[in-house]
Structure formats: structure tokens, C-alpha cells
Protein 1
Amino acid sequence: MLKKIFGSVDAYKEIPQRDDPLFAPIEWDKLPRHVAAIMDGNGRWAKGQGLLRTAGHSSGVRTLKGILSTSIGLGLEALTVYAFSTENWKRPTTEVDFLMKLFTEQLAKEMQEMHEDNVRIRFIGRLEGLPKNLQKQIREAEELMANNTGIRFNVATNYGGQDELVRAMQKVAAQAAQGNLKPEDIDEAMVEGLLDTAGDPPVDLVIRTSGDQRLSNFLLWQSAYAEFYFTEKNWPEFTPEDYVDAMTVFAKRDRRFGGLNKK
Ligand code: FPP
């Protein structure tokens, strides 16, 4: 079983069941289908604790495990997390190297448990730009979980929303160049099918920790009608209880998708 973590990266707790007190505030018929999380503030949290920025990323993994297991308990269809953007290469090499190693190690360590929990992991982004050993680990994990039917867990790594749209347009242009495509063949469904998240429901809720209120090139197309939940808490401090709070805020939103509400 994949378990929820508290305390240290290696201390786990079970996936919460529906009757868990944690879920008492949940309106089960008003949950998002797809949640996207911008896991911001690892560095600031670490600095505040007198630790290295890298320690913040290790603590961020602990939070992520708690949020994934809570998402499974909630029965969400998809969770997409922003682990590394196309812009994050501008950081010092030591931090970039640390993150790549962290992704590789955590994936190796957790993939069996995620598989047992029926998780379907997928890495989204320009994966060919990642270190070879991480690419190999990603392939292994994706292959292991390819036939699972549970939550879709997308990890955005070397990901940028604009880059994703550029890659989709290149695929369209390639088909057009072969004479297989007329301009009127291009519609929303086609574009959606060419994105890294093909097959996933649209994003209903974007959560961003650490105070900033922006999308930072994350899931630009998929978040067209998403609701936003911002919190001042840094990602390492964000708990399953905070996540449940985001769900209750979401349940109260009036989503009109450009139309009028039915009241
Ligand atoms: C943003 O905080 C966080 C990141 C760039 C890295 C996020 C990665 C993890 C939480 C680990 C995920 C692990 C796996 C296995 C997918 P920041 O560094 O920008 O913080 P700051 O804004 O305070 O500097």
C-alpha cells in the first residue's frame, strides 16, 4: 500500500478511507476530477528553518506523498504536479542535479507501492532533455503502471505549457505537410489529443502554495476553466487537512463555464 507520510520522508500512514475524520468536511458530489498542484516554496521553507534549499525539496516529497494518497482516498481521477519547469534549468547546477537525483531515487523507491495502489504514473514535458538514467527510470515506472486503472498521476518534469503547445503544433504541421490534414480538421478535441495529458479530464482546480498567485506556464490549455486555490503556506507545510480545505473551497465555487448559473 502507498501510505500517507508524516514526520520524515520514510514515515508512512495508510491511504485515508472515506469514513476517515479527515474527510468529514468533504462534499463527495462536488469534488474536482482533476487537480493540478504548483508545489512552490520549498526553498523559502528550508531557508526559514536554517536548512539548505535542497532539504526543502526532500521535505516537498513528503508532502507530495501525503497529497497523492489523499487524492487516492478521495477517488480523484487525475493529479498533475509541477516538479520541474522548462525555466528551472536557470537554477544553480547543484540544485538541478539534486532534483534530478531526487526524482530518480524516489521513483525507484516508490514505484512498486504506487503500482500496488493502481496508480497510473506519466511524466509530461520534454522528457528527452532529462538525464539518461532518469529517462530510463521513467520508462520503467510508466511501463509497470501502464495498465493500471486508478488515479492518473502526472509529474511535469522539464515541462512548460507553451512548449507543450508548440510541440502539439509541430505534430499538426507534420501531418499537414504530409497532405493528411486540412485546416478545418483542426478542432479542440484534436489539439487536446496531442497534448501530454491526452485522455485526462480538464483541470478543475489549480492549487499553488507559498503566496504567489500565477500559473507560471503550467497546463495553460488544460486550465482554461480551472478554479484557483492559493495559500500562503509553503509546500513542505501543506498538509492533507489543507488539501481537504481546498476541496471545500472548490465545492462552494459557482462554475459557469461562460454560461449563466442555474439558480
Ligand atoms: C518549487 O519550490 C519546487 C520545485 C522547483 C521542485 C518541486 C519538487 C518536489 C516537491 C519533489 C517532487 C518529487 C518527485 C519524486 C516528483 P522553489 O524551489 O521554487 O521554492 P522557492 O520559491 O521558495 O525558492
Protein 2
Amino acid sequence: MIITIDGPAGSGKSAAAELLAQSLKIRHLDTGAMYRAVTLQAYNMGLFDTPYRDAELGTIAVNMKLTFDWNTQPAKILLAGQDVSNALRRPEITEMVHWAADNTAVRAELVRRQRSIAAAFGDLVTEGRDQGTLVFPDADYKFYLDADIQERVRRRRAELDRKGLLVEASKLLSDMIERDQRDRERPVGTLKLPPDAIVLDTTTMTLPEVVATLVKIIGNNTHG
Ligand code: DC
């Protein structure tokens, strides 16, 4: 069973996908982390200071040793055997990740890897921007999570607060507007509502409510 969850930044996809996967006892793939891993590797190589950025990103994606430790929940993300799960969330990686997300060669390689992970497991909750539209058009369940932009900014701020990082609210709002625009306008892997997706507006919902709703929809359909 393949379950896709797409939606904009801050819509609550990652947390909901992880808890849904735990409840169904299947795995959760965070595809945003894969774009972040390409970015982290390029960043560590100093590639963003060179004019070769675009040409090299595809090569990095093809050659990077990205693996997941599926024995932990959520799965740890390993780059060349090193746990980079926290490093991937660093603000400078968030700022640079659009280079990888906009790159056709990177997308082709990551889509190939995503399909191969799904084929290996058979059952997967996979979450991102293009999972229900492009990567798994025949998924068994497609969800699209959304939330009001002010609420998405509030969630982002709470996440940064927890890490002790202070960022001005107006900067967070302008960053979110920019990310939405990039996600919705990139020529490949564009964030779109899959026509056959179930839409959930999570603006006024708690995380347990979101997960319970998803579990119920799947349970109702699976058991009659
Ligand atoms: O969900 P996130 O913030 O970790 O995603 C990081 C970036 O990767 C974001 O700019 C959107 C992009 N992305 C994408 O283009 N396609 C996906 N399937 C997942 C993420």
C-alpha cells in the first residue's frame, strides 16, 4: 500500500506522515530530506560559492551515499554513513535547498530512488510536493495537507523557538511566501493538488486530530 502526502511547507505533512506510518506499522519516507541531503553535500563541498552549481548538483545526487536507518522512528538519515538528520534542518540548508529542488537532473535521480525504496518495501507513507502527482500517480491513498499561511508561519516559528533560534516574524512570513511561490512555480515536480487527493485543511486541527482523520479514512476504506 502506497500512501502519498503532499502539501506546502508548514502544513504538518512530516509529523502526520510519521505518526500515520507508525500507526499502520509501515515506513515513512521524507522526500524533502533527500533534496536537503543533496544540498548539504554541495554546501559542505563549497559548491554554492562556485559558478558550477547547477551542473554539479546532478552528479552529487547520483553519487551521494544516502541511506536511511529504518530501525529508528523516524528513520535516521545517513550521508556516507554519518547521521545528518539534524544538519539537514539547518537554516542555511533551508535557504539553499531550492537549487536542488529546481534541478531537473537532481529530481530525476531522487524520483528514481523514491520509487526504488517503495518497490523494496511495498508499503510506504511518502511525503513531499510531487508524490501523488508525479512519483506515485497510482498510489492507494493520496492526501493533500494545507493550512493558512499565518498558521504555517506560527508553526515554523515554534519549531525554531524549540531549537533556540530567534527569527523575526516578518522574515518568516516573507520566506514562507517565497517558498510557496517556488514550490508552485517550478517547472518540474511542481506542488499541485492531485485531482484524486483527499484535502485536509489543518489550520485549526491538532496533530493527533490530523492523524486520527487519516487513519479513519484508510480504515474505513480498507475494512469496508
Ligand atoms: O519539506 P521540506 O521543507 O523538507 O522540503 C525541502 C525542499 O525540497 C523544499 O524546497 C521543497 C523541496 N521538495 C520538492 O521539491 N519535492 C519533494 N518531493 C520534496 C521536497
